[in-house]
Amino acid sequence: MRFLFLCSFSAFLTVASAQDISPRLLTSTLDNLIRWNSSFSEGHTGFSLADLDTGEPIYGYNSERYFVPASNVKLLTYYVAQRELSDAAPALYYHDGGGDTTDIWGTGYPLLLHPSFYTYDTLRGWLADRSGTLIYNLPAAEEVPRYGAGWSWDDYNYGYVYERSSLPVYGNRLFLDYRGPDTGDTTTGLFGSPPGVAAGLIQNAAQPRAISRREGSNQFTVGYNFYHPGNFPLERPLSVSPPFVVGQLREAFPHLDVQLGTAPRPPRSELRQVSVTLPDTLYRKMLQGSDNFLAEQLILLAATHRYGWPDEETFFEYVTDTLFVAMQLGDVRFADGSGLSRYNLVKPRQLTQLLTALDRAVGRDRLRELLPAGGVNGTLERRFTNRPETFVWAKTGTLSGVTCVSGLVRCRSGRWLAFSFLHNNVMGRTSDYYREMENTLGWVYDNL
Question: Transmembrane stretches, by residue range (predicted)?
Answer without folding.
Answer: none
